[in-house]
Q: What sequence folds into this?
């Protein structure tokens, strides 16, 4: 083979390789959109079987802050004439009247305005104060969180906490006499079975109660006469004028004993199931 033929073949082969490389290079660059037309896209995104993302309601946080805990000064309520048959230092709650009475004697008492349970969340009975807590944490019951899933699992005590500055717990129940961050609710029937007070009032009341204080929750107080402890019904004992006073105590008939079965036990008198609260919260 002549030298000239070999040189021609080499030139032709090099040219073919150069042309092939340039074509491949141009094709590769075009795939990345640097030259040529961009890849065609669908006007509607494909989710490949997955539903489009929607804005879901935020789930309840495990712990929520109740905010600051300022110093709350006790605020004394009005002192009124209150004829009663309770030992001094008793708490009487008038659900219908939305008032709480703390007896100072058998003729006087402090009276505080309160909020009571809304329809279906009222109850009556007798409980004993079990403990008192400053700026208590709030743990909404599961039933309440089912109805209101945005509620926190737990909220620390503070000015944003619905239990307010202080809580007075009643027996082994979830019921409390407590402060509130919703002062406009005082005087209404709006709670889940607890009794709300102004923060200054509950701080004042807490200074007078202890673990032996009895709490009597009544549907209503008698319109006249002396308010007596419940014992199978409300006993209205009218005041006797001095001129018609009863004989000396030694000659007076002994008071009729109240059957034990008719006295509310520690769990209290609970209305029928349709009215009994199932999840006392605030």
A:
């Amino acid at each position: 083979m002549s030298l000239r033929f070999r040189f021609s073949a080499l030139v032709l082969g090099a040219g073919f390789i150069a042309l092939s490389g340039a074509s491949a290079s141009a094709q590769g660059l075009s795939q990345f959109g640097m030259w040529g037309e961009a890849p065609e896209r669908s006007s509607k995104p494909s989710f490949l079987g997955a539903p489009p993302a929607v804005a879901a309601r935020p789930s309840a946080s495990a712990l929520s802050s109740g905010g600051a805990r300022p110093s709350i000064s006790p605020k004394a309520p009005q002192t009124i004439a209150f004829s009663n048959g309770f030992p001094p230092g008793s708490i009487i709650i008038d659900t219908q009247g939305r008032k709480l009475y703390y007896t100072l004697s058998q003729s006087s008492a402090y009276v505080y305005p309160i909020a009571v349970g809304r329809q279906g969340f009222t109850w009556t009975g007798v409980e004993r104060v079990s403990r008192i807590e400053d700026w208590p944490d709030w743990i909404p019951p599961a039933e309440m969180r089912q109805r209101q899933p945005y509620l926190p699992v737990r909220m620390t005590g503070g000015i944003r906490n619905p239990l307010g500055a202080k809580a007075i717990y009643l027996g082994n129940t979830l019921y409390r006499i407590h402060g509130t961050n919703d002062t406009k609710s005082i005087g209404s029937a709006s709670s889940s079975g607890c009794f709300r007070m102004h923060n200054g009032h509950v701080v004042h009341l807490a200074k007078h109660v202890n673990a032996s204080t009895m709490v009597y929750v009544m549907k209503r107080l008698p319109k006249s006469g002396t308010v007596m402890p419940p014992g199978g019904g409300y006993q209205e004992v009218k005041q006797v004028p001095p001129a018609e006073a009863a004989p000396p105590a030694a000659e007076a008939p002994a008071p009729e004993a109240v059957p034990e079965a008719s006295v509310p036990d520690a769990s209290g008198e609970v209305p029928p199931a349709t009215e009994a609260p199932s999840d006392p919260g605030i």
Summary: DSSP finds three helices and eleven strands in the chain. The first helix runs from residue 3 to 31. Helices lie at 3-31, 142-147, 199-206.
